[in-house]
């Protein structure tokens, strides 16, 4: 058993190392990670957020079902939508809380694959830089918080992982957050939005999926994030308006989806202004808040409980499934596009 575990960890380390070797940062651009899809051009991904509670609040049960679904789909990687370690992130890269919340919980063989990580507000109240430190990968090679914001290029989809905590003015005015390498806020946000806008316009992937911790549109406890509605949403939707008006396919493509956590629930919301779909996957542990908000967008599905999201993507099809803590299918979403939509 020990020999198998050791071999598995060695494979994980090799995979993570190979991925990191393909990182290609450039000045004034978001860091990029290449993660090629399967040989036939398909991609399978799980997304989960708000999980790191030492297995409590059903975190272990969610992890077990993620392992089952991950094995069935043959997942390529996992996306974490933030709030990775409660209540206040980690103190340093040797903090035992990291293993207690991550390594010791997500033990299924199918989950021994890269995890691409964004930070949540609870991660920022600890040592936020520790989660990005390459030394954390010496503890667990799967944990790839490459940068505060970065892009995973996977052929059939580009995932734009975005650092949303600095947008939230309430956090910024609190002294308990670790804002190193962020201040000044206005410059940081302006640069990030410009980089995202450029990356979306340049992307040639069939599917463009933006990932952040905080929701843009939500019917769950926290509701809409005003700062993201004002600053981020126009970028995701302005490209689509430009596409509709100019028909310049190669220059005007917006995001297909925005995936977030923060609200400890599962939900699918359709924008009333554009084709963008808002997906919340924040049910990795503590849930059942019993609090709801209104949003002007169309709520397709909402579940005030624990669970996670899967995505199966090809050049022309996207199949998304929300699962509960027992692995039951709660909601599905399918989208297709013609081959020449990719041009």
From TrEMBL:
Transmembrane intervals: none
Cofactor note from UniProt? Binds 2 iron ions per subunit.
Q: What is its main location?
A: secreted
Name of the molecule in the record: Purple acid phosphatase
UniProt keyword annotation of Chloroplast present = no
Q: Which InterPro entries match?
A: Acid_PPase, Calcineurin-like_PHP, Metallo-depent_PP-like, Metallophosphoesterase_PAP
Q: Which organism is it from?
A: Paspalum notatum var. saurae
Q: What is its EC number?
A: 3.1.3.2
| Localization, UniProt | Secreted
Note one Pfam family from the annotation.
Metallophos
Sorted UniProt keywords: Glycoprotein, Hydrolase, Iron, Metal-binding, Secreted, Signal, Zinc
Write down the superkingdom of origin. Answer: Eukaryota
Q: Which family does it belong to?
A: Belongs to the metallophosphoesterase superfamily. Purple acid phosphatase family.
Any Gene Ontology CC annotation: extracellular region
Residue ranges annotated for the Calcineurin-like phosphoesterase domain, each copy included: 45-265
Q: Which residues form the signal peptide?
A: 1-28
Q: Which reaction does it catalyse?
A: a phosphate monoester + H2O = an alcohol + phosphate
Single GO MF descriptor: metal ion binding
For this protein, the record's CDD domains field holds: MPP_ACP5 (cd07378)
